[in-house]
Amino acid sequence: MSVPPSDLPFAPTLGSTAVRTPTTPAWVSKYLVRVVSLDVLVGVVAALLASLLRFGEALTWQYVLLSLFIPPMWVLALGLSNAYERRFLGVAVEEYRSVTRAVVGVLAVLAVSAFILNVLLARLYVLILLPVLLLGGLLARFVTRRWLLAGRARGDLMQRTVVVGRADAVGALVRSVKSEPSQGLMPVAVCASGLDGDWNMSSDIEGVPVSGRPRDAVAVADRMGADVVAVASHPDLAGKALRRLAWALEERGVELIVSPGLLDVAGPRLSIRPSSDLSLLHIERPAAGRRSVILKQLMDRTLAALLVLALSPILIVTALAIRFTDPGPILFRQKRVGIRGELFDIYKFRTMVVDAEAKLAALQARSQGNGVLFKMQNDPRVTKVGAILRRYSIDELPQLFNVILGDMSLVGPRPPLPAEVAEYEPDALRRLHVRPGMTGLWQVSGRSDLSWEESLRLDLRYVDNWSPIGDLRILLRTFQAVTRGSGAY
């Protein structure tokens, strides 16, 4: 028996005369105008520099003509490399990759053109032109992204989003989107199933109004003027139903985002494995291969040794300040749990009174930590010099010697105490699969202000997705977190 069209998910809106006309969000137009203008400027500057530095006053008309073609060629190469693709705008990694592909494209065009026309291009001209295009293109995207992120931090330049799926998955997705405004998604409505009552009896999920069931997603997107429909993991929204939804949104120029329900699996570990009748999502194993581990250890120890040399004046001044302001040892040693549960001695500058451990039991009831970790603002055991050292994480610098010795890494999960490991649930033990670090995802995401669950989630995300390039990014973010001093006490 055939099913009436009205009973098919999303079918009533397909082919309807009331279909919303596709429009380009205002923030996209603003972003494109800025980035294209900067790209044209980069092309002009690159052509001028290459011409003047290579030829000076001896510039020939052939290179004048070539230089006139460089700016439009550069913009065209970026366009063909998806640099202006709407879904990649504001996504740093993809935008930067597109610049690299565009530079390779320009090089290929110059080489092929020179071969066909049987002319010899000045090598210095090309060697100046391409690096300027590369650096200028990256800088243009860095500047426009800063403008975009600043606007999104104020709640502007956002994409109106309808979230669809089962109520619990929708709630998790809404929380995730709200916690990261840099993604540019602003939930304006929810279409959920699995509610305690009928949908019109539930006022909201995570502060977002419930406007219907999943089958009503297209109608709600039309009514709310949505730019994006985000589908949370839902067994009923797959296969034909999801395909119909994609068709309906395509007619309206609305983007479709699907959460596969894979928590904290980073993009580099995901790839599509196509087959004749379906596409499979392939998840690579975490980067724990021997070559990656050796590279990480080599990078850690080299950078740690260089940092010890560069920061030696600070280390000496700090040691003297502790020695002359409070009686007791300069360094604080404590047993911590490292990779595979091995114990090691961690080194820090002493920031508390000598008998701090003896006074801990009396302060446990006043802990402002996150359930497992003891933290306390205005801890009476902290010395005056110690408060300054903690605020800017100077007390952590002796751990550079732990890195050199191989007990720790520059980046990794926080090194736990044996007593904390004894309270770990099974999932938390995965933190011990990598060396603990001086800094990590949780340190640059809020430090002591995070809950234990959030700290654990970030540490597990790092364990499953770490890479040498990712470590460098975290080190750069660490400098910002330390200078702000947020969450440090």
UniProtKB/TrEMBL annotation:
InterPro entries hit by this protein: Bact_transf, EPS_sugar_tfrase
Keyword Mitochondrion tagged: no
Similarity field: Belongs to the bacterial sugar transferase family.
Main location as per UniProt: membrane
UniProtKB keywords: Membrane, Transferase, Transmembrane, Transmembrane helix
Compartments, record wording: Membrane
Full protein name: Exopolysaccharide biosynthesis polyprenyl glycosylphosphotransferase
Ranges that cross the membrane: 31-53, 59-78, 99-118, 124-144, 303-324
Disulfide bond found in the keyword field: no
Organism the protein comes from: Mobilicoccus caccae
